[in-house]
């Protein structure tokens, strides 16, 4: 049986829908975090998005479905088997719409974010000193309340920024949702994992064909 870690947040519905399309029907009782499908081929564990790389890195799950943003933050190496056609976003530097023109000229750019590794790397690569304040959510509050003039966060529709009178100052990258594998698991179960990936690809093709 393959154990696959699934994020229990916003990516769960689309991920379980595509797995059902592959014939893997996961049934979950209320509050249940482990699901097996009737054929006994896969077992799914439902974990917090940010914890998912930990489970795959330690081999508790051989496979996982995870945002590339979270994969990067984990610092772990995985085999990245597939990019899924949903859940893509931009990762952006944002700040107040009406900021004073010279606020980006401060000696050090102060940024609040969940994505501390990404933010440090992105600005250090450009030689820009950055003071990163770690938050775990509701990051848009930071510029509104004066914790930091800038945030680095995911932007999908942009409506959270608009609701706080913020705007994208710069797009730093794109994120996508990936099927990842623990490298050792992949090497030992190469055929089974590749069959699973092919089944998933077929299901994604069929879904795309339906528009
Ligand atoms: N609008 C969006 N905001 C945040 N993440 C998004 C969005 N759209 C797609 N994603 C992707 O979904 C993933 C977030 O999933 P999820 O909602 O499970 O976690 P989360 O909100 O980051 O919370 P936590 O890590 O605390 O569980 C991100 O890693 C990102 O790749
Ligand atoms: O561009 P949008 O469509 O508005 O989406 C982006 C928002 O969604 C995410 O937050 P989430 O809902 O995960 O809450 P969080 O602040 O607790 O991370 C992200 O961190 C942004 O705040």
Automatic annotation (TrEMBL):
GO terms for cellular component: cytoplasm. The keyword ATP-binding applies. It catalyses: 1-(5-phospho-beta-D-ribosyl)-ATP + diphosphate = 5-phospho-alpha-D-ribose 1-diphosphate + ATP. Coiled coil: none annotated. It comes from the Bacteria. One of its GO terms (biological process) is L-histidine biosynthetic process. The keyword DNA-binding does not apply. Keywords: Amino-acid biosynthesis, ATP-binding, Cytoplasm, Glycosyltransferase, Histidine biosynthesis, Nucleotide-binding, Transferase. Residues 48-201 form the ATP phosphoribosyltransferase catalytic domain. It is found in: Cytoplasm. PROSITE patterns: ATP_P_PHORIBOSYLTR. Belongs to the ATP phosphoribosyltransferase family. Short subfamily. Catalyzes the condensation of ATP and 5-phosphoribose 1-diphosphate to form N'-(5'-phosphoribosyl)-ATP (PR-ATP). Has a crucial role in the pathway because the rate of histidine biosynthesis seems to be controlled primarily by regulation of HisG enzymatic activity. This is ATP phosphoribosyltransferase. It comes from Alkalispirochaeta americana.
């Amino acid at each position: 049986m393959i154990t696959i870690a699934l994020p229990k947040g916003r990516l769960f519905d689309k991920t379980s829908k595509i797995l059902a399309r592959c014939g893997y029907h996961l049934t979950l009782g209320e509050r249940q975090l482990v699901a097996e499908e009737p054929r006994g081929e896969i077992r799914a564990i439902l974990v917090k998005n940010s914890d998912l790389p930990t489970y795959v890195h330690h081999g508790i799950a051989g496979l996982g479905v995870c945002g590339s943003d979270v994969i990067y933050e984990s610092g772990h190496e995985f085999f990245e088997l597939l990019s899924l056609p949903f859940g893509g976003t931009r990762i952006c530097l944002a700040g107040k719409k009406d900021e004073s023109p010279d606020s980006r000229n401060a000696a050090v750019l102060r940024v609040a974010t969940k994505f501390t590794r990404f933010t440090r790397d992105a600005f250090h690569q450009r030689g820009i000193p950055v003071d990163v304040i770690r938050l775990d959510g509701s990051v848009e509050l930071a510029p509104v309340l004066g914790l930091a003039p800038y945030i680095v966060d995911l932007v999908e529709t942009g409506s959270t920024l608009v609701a706080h009178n913020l705007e994208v100052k710069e797009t730093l990258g794109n994120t996508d949702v990936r099927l990842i594998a623990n490298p050792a698991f992949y090497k030992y179960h190469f055929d089974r994992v590749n069959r699973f990936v092919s089944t998933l690809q077929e299901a994604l093709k069929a879904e795309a064909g339906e528009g």
